[in-house]
Each structure stands twice: as C-alpha cells, then as structure tokens.
C-alpha cells in the first residue's frame, strides 16, 4: 500500500513538473506579443530575455532530438502540442525529452532501495506509466484550452459583428477583436493576432483562417472559419452572416447547457450511492439497530 501511494505521488509530481516545464518553455505567446508590438509601435525586442531553467530545457531538447520517431507519430503529436498552445519549433523534442526523463525518474525511484523496496515488475510498470503520463497531461491541457476558446467564441462573435457593422473590414475587425479579448480570453486573442500577423506577412485570407481552425482544433471555430471563407468567396454580407452564425452558436450553447443539465442526474448516482446513502442509513437505522441489539442480546443469552 505504501509503495502504491509513493508511486502515485511521484507520478503526480512528475506530471506537474512536466506540465510546468512545457508551460515555461513554450514562450511562443510572449514572442508573438513582442513581434506584434514591433509591427504596431516599432518597439525594440528586449534583450536578455532567456527562459528559466535553460540548461534543463537544453538537456530535454538534446535527448528528444536523439530519439527515433516516426513521421506519423510526430505529426499527430505536433498537432496535439499546437492544440495545447505550444507552437515553438522545439516543443516536440522538449516533450520527448520530458517524457523520457519522467519515465526514467519513476523507474529509478521504484527500482532503487533508497526510497522503496526494489521490485522490478513494479519498476517496469512505473517506467511505462512515466512514459504515458505526459501524454495524458498534454491531452488534458489541450482539452482545457479548447474549452476556453469555445467559451470565448460568443463574445468574440458579438465584438466581430459590432466591428464589421461599424465600418471596419474583416482583417481590421479580427485585429480589433484580438486586442479587445487579450485580457478576458488570452488564448483566442493570441490565435486572432496570429491571423493578423499572417495576413500582414502576405498569406491569403482563406489560408490564414484555415490555419486558425487547425491551430485551435475547436469545431465551433472551424464552422466560423468555413462561414467566413464562403462569405468572402461568394461576396455575401459579412455582418449578416456573422449575425446568423452568432445566433446559431447561442442555440448550440443552450443545447449544450441543457445536455449537461440532463446528465447531472446520472452523474449524481455515484456520490449518492457511495457517499450520502451510507451516512443516511447510519443516522436513520443506527439508533434502531442499537436498540434491537440491546433488547435482543439478553434474550439470546438467556436462551443459551
């Protein structure tokens, strides 16, 4: 039991360290903000802005670059890293290095007699668990980021409709919405700023919008991008299309809320059965059971 608790504690600490390292190392957001400020205001890029624990990240990167990897797995993992918000070029080798470090660390903790009694079967199980755990952490981070983007879409659409109806073009409206959402919804704001940066670099608007949908992995944002591309291609009213899409998005959000409310009863079965009902039984039946025991126990002893 103690070994299991120690292994679980180490897995939790290792996953936390890996997630923190990925979050600290993924400085793509800060770089994007600095470049956007340079384009807008001509501010020089601050010098000496090196990430912390650079030596550890360098070691992870070297280890990740030496590992054999299949192109198919690399493509899927890079897409998952992008969905989680890690867009740096060295995010993939850093992730591989962190995965190897977590697996080896968990193996050594379980296999060495310093902390626990050596158990090779448990050590190899820890090695496998340490190799798989960073993938689950990354999937969780990607899901949380996609959920935040999905929640931000309604406000972003409202601001986009107001900006377009006020006379701004679609490109300027996207830039304006990205600036306005920087504090409330930084994830969607950074993605919209990237779209503006790609448009300034000469990328076609349809390609820039498709890249936005690919970076986020959110179905609602993909539907918005498809609508904007079709509107631009056929020359229909952008403001009217955005208003209709915003109404559709609100209906979908209301349906998701109703679905979540309908699932509440089923989700409450487990805590009711295993946590609340035993306490109710103890409170209601406990005194009667004690009274029965006090009354019937002397009778049973007399019959013996």
What keyword list fits this structure?
304 residues, 12 helices, mainly alpha, Receptor-associated Protein, flat
Structural class: mainly alpha
Spans with pLDDT under 50 lasting ≥5 residues?
1-9, 16-30, 40-50
What is the CA–CA distance across the termini?
43 Å
β-sheet strand percentage = under 5%
Please render the helix and strand layout as text.
Blueprint: H1 2-25, H2 28-41, H3 54-66, H4 71-83, H5 91-111, H6 120-165, H7 170-180, H8 186-200, H9 205-216, H10 219-234, H11 238-267, H12 269-303
Helix pairs in contact: 1-5, 1-6, 2-8, 3-5, 4-6, 5-6, 6-7, 6-11, 7-8, 8-9, 9-10, 10-11
Describe the structure.
The protein is mostly helical. The protein has two domains: 142 residues, no CATH class; 118 residues, Receptor-associated Protein. It contains twelve helices and no strands. The two termini are 43 Å apart.
State the gist of this model.
The protein is built from twelve helices and no strands.
């Amino acid at each position: 039991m103690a070994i299991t608790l120690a292994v679980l504690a180490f897995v939790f600490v290792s996953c936390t360290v890996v997630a923190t390292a990925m979050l600290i190392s993924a400085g793509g957001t800060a770089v994007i903000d600095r470049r956007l400020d340079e384009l807008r205001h001509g501010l020089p890029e601050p010098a000496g802005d090196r990430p912390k624990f650079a030596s550890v990240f360098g070691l992870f990167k070297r280890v990740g670059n030496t590992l054999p990897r299949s192109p198919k797995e690399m493509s899927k993992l890079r897409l998952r890293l992008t969905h989680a918000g890690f867009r740096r070029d060295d995010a993939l080798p850093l992730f591989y290095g962190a995965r190897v470090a977590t697996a080896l660390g968990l193996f050594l903790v379980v296999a060495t007699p310093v902390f626990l009694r050596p158990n090779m079967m448990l050590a190899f199980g820890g090695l496998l668990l340490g190799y798989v755990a960073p993938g689950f952490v990354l999937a969780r981070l990607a899901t949380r980021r996609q959920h935040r983007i999905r929640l931000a879409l309604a406000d972003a659409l409202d601001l986009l409709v107001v900006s377009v109806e006020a006379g701004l073009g679609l490109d300027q409206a996207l830039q304006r919405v990205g600036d306005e959402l920087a504090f409330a919804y930084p994830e969607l704001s950074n993605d919209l700023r990237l779209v503006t940066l790609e448009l300034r670099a000469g990328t076609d608007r349809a390609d820039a919008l498709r890249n936005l949908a690919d970076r986020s992995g959110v179905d609602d944002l993909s539907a918005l991008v498809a609508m904007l591309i079709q509107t631009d291609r056929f020359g229909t009213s952008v403001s009217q299309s955005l208003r209709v899409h915003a109404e559709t998005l609100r209906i979908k959000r209301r349906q998701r809320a109703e679905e979540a409310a309908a699932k509440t009863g089923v989700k409450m079965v487990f805590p009711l059965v295993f946590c609340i009902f035993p306490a109710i039984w103890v409170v209601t039946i406990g005194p009667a059971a004690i009274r029965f025991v006090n009354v019937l126990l002397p009778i049973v002893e007399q019959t013996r």
